[in-house]
Amino acid sequence: MPIRRSLTDLSVLADAVVSVVRVADPSSDIAVETRGDPTFHCDFELTRRVVENLVSNAVKVTRVGGRVRVVISGSRERAFISVTDEGPTIPMDQRAHVFEPYRGDRLWNAAGDEASGLSLAFCRLAVEAQGGTIRIENGTPRGNVFVVELLRSQR
Predict the structure, then answer these.
(1) Residue 147 backbone phi and psi in degrees, to 5
(2) Number of folded domains that form the chain
(3) Cα–Cα–Cα angle for 121, 126, 27, rounded to 5 degrees
(4) What are the mean pLDDT values of the chain's consecutive 10-residue runs (155 residues total)?
(5) CATH (domain of 96)
(6) Is the CB of residue 107 less than 8 Å from the CB of residue 90?
């Protein structure tokens, strides 16, 4: 798949994704925060789908009344997209595997539904195709933070 980079304001992209997710689930408490330069050369459509998958997954695993937070941050060298949920913390030994398609030991969402097993695999492929990385960190005080890191020099 060819990568079509264009100058994109990641905070505008994140706000648009959150608006769409809110239509599907109006009770969701989702906040977008921007720190630093949010403009970045990326494939808009791939990046939008990554953010949409991460936010949708975060809403699914976060309990009713919980909060999902999207933080867009940038420095001279990198751009970051972080999505924080308040779901069950993914154990360290399972973190590398959540990005594999069709994992048999997938986690269940807050409603007890199992996902298709493809959204996080897609996220990893789309981010890596743009020269970036995706990882999971512990949320504070609970939950998970999915962090997408993109290098600005990849143009």
Answers:
(1) -115, 120
(2) 1
(3) 70
(4) 91 96 89 94 96 94 90 92 93 87 54 64 95 91 92 65
(5) 3.30.565.10
(6) yes
